[in-house]
Amino acid sequence: MKAVSVEQMRELDRRTIEKAGIPGFVLMERAGFGSGEKIIEFLEDRISSEHVKRFVILAGKGNNGGDAYVVARYLYENTDMDIIIYSVCDLEELGDDSKKHALLIINKVSCSVKKKLTDKDFRPGDVIIDGLLGTGISGSLRKPYDNWIKTVNSVSAIVISLDIPSGLNGNDGSFDNHCIMADMTVAMGLPKTGLVCGNGPDHCGLLRCVDIGIPREYIDETENDFTIYFAGDAEKSLPRLPMRSYKNSVGSVLVIGGSKDYYGAPFLSALTAQRAGAGMVIAAVPESIEIIPKLTLSLIVRKIKDNGSGYFGLCSLEQLTPLIERSDAVVVGPGIGTERDTFLFLREILKVQKPLIIDADALNIIAESPEIYRKKDSNILTPHHGEMKRLLEAFELERLNDKGRAEKARALAACLDSIIVFKGARTITASPDGRITVNSSGCPALATAGSGDSLSGMIAAFNATQREDYYNSTAAAVFVHGMTGEISPFGNRGFIADDIHMLVPEAMLRISPFA
After folding, report:
1. For 252-511, which CATH class?
2. Which of 150, 108, 126 is nearest to 54 (CA)?
């Protein structure tokens, strides 16, 4: 989905109202009802009923306040929860559309105008809906917004922002003094660039987006620098499978990984590749690994000759070559170590003419010996922050180390003629032709050892199945991986990488009925 500036969104709204003939009142209702649906979905999905007892709606003067009144009406009609509205102004100060929507709800729930908020206005179990400022803010906060935002951030409550956290600049993700810290943000129409730039990722929480009916042709005519990837985008990569599908037709994945020091990493990749839909998955590990974890019986494990070292080397290639030839996508790197013979081994693996998902120690080896890298548009490199820094330096792009994440990913993708998956909060997928996709899924649950190994297996499975559209398949895999964290039954703190593969099927089914 295209990420747009605040000005572009205003122009899209204007054209929709004036040229397409859709009244602003209708757009506001669509935005509020869609947001209400996302709010209920979020609370049912993640939050214990003990933590949800009342909706507190914060309504500002502008259109964002109008959206808040619509959300209040939707929640009133679709839940049994108590609802209270705190407004910064009287009805007479609202715009026409906002006032009309406010009149549809204020006599049904508790509603009061406040010039100041204190922690006494909130109680345990409150869910705060932030409809204060939206994208209209510029400069420092004025009264009463500074007080309201500070107070909201000081109480222990779930906070959901409408369109954008109040106080945040919709274009660059900056703010002057205070900004709402949201647990989820529901963008309306199209997501704003500031949601994923600057301070955006830290203040937006989970991201959702609702369609308000902007004509497709207007969106297509709008230029943008990058896209933000949502569930609707991922659905295209999970189409119906032919009834005559069989294991070889839906993709074969080979995971080359592990060493005597890190025996678990390749199995995290392999198990996730299985659950992500690969018809056959083989985990190839050095034969001297003493510990093989308990695995699903359907996973094929091949112990590869290592001359007793516990690491892959040139001696490993004879056994691996036929396995590579029979695979549709190959993961290399998880846990392989950086021994000298492994350098020589990887140099040969990089010659493979198959989609290669290059991760972990394989990235570190390339960073130390960049001359071994073979540029290929079916290669997919998955660096985290430290690995990205080393790769940029290795390929003489260190000047970009002070630049933004998207700029780094785009430059490295162009340099290596390969797809780059720059992992982290709001993972970025970059293609050699300059396209950039920022992932909208994910949460702190995924900040756990082995999460990246699981992602590599998922990327391999999606590319083994889709075959050819590597960029979009990779972005879809990144999205599904992020969703496993969002639907974790263990919360943000109790989730580990071993849980990821078990949640992949559910995550895919939430996206597509054909998964």
Report:
1. alpha beta
2. 126
**Cα 465 from Cα 462, distance rounded (Å):** 5
From the options 3.40.50.300, 3.10.20.90, 3.40.50.10260, 3.40.50.170, give the CATH code of 6-225. 3.40.50.10260
Query: Each residue of 412-426: pLDDT tens digit?
Result: 999 999 999 999 999
DSSP E strands, 426-510: 428-430, 436-439
Strands 419-422 and 428-430, sheet pairing: antiparallel
Helix (H, G, I), strand (E, B) or coil at 201: helix
Cα–Cα distance for residue pair 232/374, rounded to 1 Å: 34
In this prediction the pTM is: 0.96
Q: Residue 461 and residue 456: Cα distance in Å, rounded?
A: 9
In single-letter form, the type of residue at position 112 comes to S
Q: Six-digit token pair at 221? A: 């005519």
Strand extents, DSSP E, 360-427: 379-381, 419-422
DSSP 80-146: --EEEEEESS-GGGS-HHHHHHHHTTTTTSEEEE-S---GGG--TTEEEEEES-GGG--SSPPTTHH
User: Alpha-carbon distance 478 to 227, whole Å?
Assistant: 14
Contacts of 483 (CB under 8 A, 6+ apart): 231, 441, 442, 507, 510, 511
pLDDT digits (tens, 9 = 90+) for 15-45: 999 999 999 999 999 999 999 999 999 998 7
* Nearest residue to 433 (alpha-carbon basis) of 455, 417, 456: 417
Q: What is the C-alpha separation between 105 and 98, in angstroms, rounded?
A: 11
